[in-house]
Amino acid sequence: MHLIALLCQDDQLSRALSEFHDVASKVILHPVPYLHDLERVLASLEPLDFAGALILSASLQERAFSLSSRSSLDAQEAAAADSVTVTPGSLVAEYNLGRAVGLALQHIDCDARGARAVVLGAGPMGRAVARDLASSGVRHLSVLGTNRPEAEQTASQLAITTDVVARAQDDPLAFKLLDGADLLVRIDTSTHIPTRHLGPHLTVVDLAPQAMSPLRQRATNLGAVTLGARDIQAQQVALCLNHILGSTFDAGQFLSLIHGIGEGV
After folding, report:
1. Which domains occur in the chain, in start order?
2. Is the CB of residue 203 less than 8 Å from the CB of residue 224?
């Protein structure tokens, strides 16, 4: 039996994932309280015979990274961890959000190669998504941050085959970049996207917590294909378990659980 700690401040998501049962993999996802004392929780994993932990709350991920002994390149790039694997005497951090977005797009047959993509938001999440999109072969990538230095930091050192622009969200050029986009990923969910930028040409990934955010609803009404936070989280959970256990998990197993709380595609 493989015990995996579930560190998640979203009670609905935590309850849904705790119902995961897979006889073949013998995995138990166990919600863990006392998230205010993350250092103690992570230090307890090995003595209590946990194989690792899923850290699904963004507010805990930078701290989890700093408490880990070793980390993957993705985790180092983001300075954040959405999973840790227990090894003898150490914790190994991994960060899967960027890859999760890429797999979710593949799941709906959205090929990012050659696309003109806009990422709204910076920080670890924006960096991870921008890095994966650039690696996937987007032709042009715009990162729009709260300010230009923040956006430039997020967009630095990406694949040289991608034309990269970094601007503040209120820069006049930002509206032109949105007009030319065919893929939009909104990480900063406080950012408003005017309806004139939406349409059937567009694929929208929105990390807002609602089952159907106002942005997704407006985009869907205009013929766009959309994905929400729950769709990304299903891919993220599968990737985290793959790293912790060295097995292959199907994100569809987790989507079906999430659908049970009414927050899937």
Report:
1. 2-95 (3.40.50.10860), 98-230 (3.40.50.720)
2. yes
